[in-house]
Amino acid sequence: MESISVVGVDLAKNMIQLHAVDAVGKVILKKAVRRSGFLAFFANLPCCLIGMEACSSSHYWARELTKLGHQVKLMAPQFVKPYVKSNKNDANDAEAICEAVTRPSMRFVAQKSQEQQALLLIHRERDGAVRDRTALINRIRATLAEFGVAVPVGPWRLNKWFAQEFSAHCAHLPETLQRHILRMKARLTLLESEITAYDQEIDSLSKINPLCQKLERVPGIGRLTASALVASIGSGKEFDSGRQLSAWLGLVPKQHSSGGKSKLLGISKRGDSYLRRLFIHGARAVYRHLNPKRKLTTWLNELSCRAHKNVVIVALANKLARIAWSLLAKDQEYVETI
Description:
The protein is α/β, with parallel strands linked by helices and 338 residues long.
């Protein structure tokens, strides 16, 4: 056991597969341990390099193993897959992880703190509540449309319609449908209160985080984008450049090049779709309200002359992501150029 240098860990709910090698790559151990004895096993090992896929519970185990003195590195599952030699099973996956973590060109995922994970979960729950609200509003509009009642689009307009016009249509609707619509409206009110509570929680956490406050000074980066980005990448030092962050967000062109011929397609849309959507929405807001005094406006106007509006918005989102990386990784302050 003292000669173990690298351990590949394939996480699971109950049985966790291990694959350990020494400094020259000789296999020392192939073993499956129960979840309850996982930490006890590594507590008896000398400090070594541990590789895991960035998946459910991986950040928790990474924090616990780091406390024991081990060096833990997390990798995206798609980067581990090429190292699986044969059929997929837990033992082969652990071996592939052990091999991949030692590659000098491997890209690793930053280990998240408890605070980062908690903030991200609030963002996920808020996003889920917004989707549920949209689905419920669509069902309300579709239900009333079956009886010839046209309802305006959007949460704010729908609430206004309920307050001003719903009672006028009640006389023409069956009582069963009226009760059904009122129950749906009650669920909608509950969802909106949950979204408001999530917004307040995110606001309070953003106000005490200096990294979020730094990012919010950038036009196009609001409280949601700033807090979600800080919760996802922390200081951003896992990325070597702003372009790597943009590529991780899926905001760079996808390539299909061969034989010296370079062919660029649309954006790759890889990585975190939630963060990418927030950056694009922020860029769209900047594009709609252009300030003629900013130097950025000149660049946007020139780009708009030769590209579609949506292309310009994505290009601006790419630029915002690179600016955000510079502020986080290089500890810089945003200076408005006018």
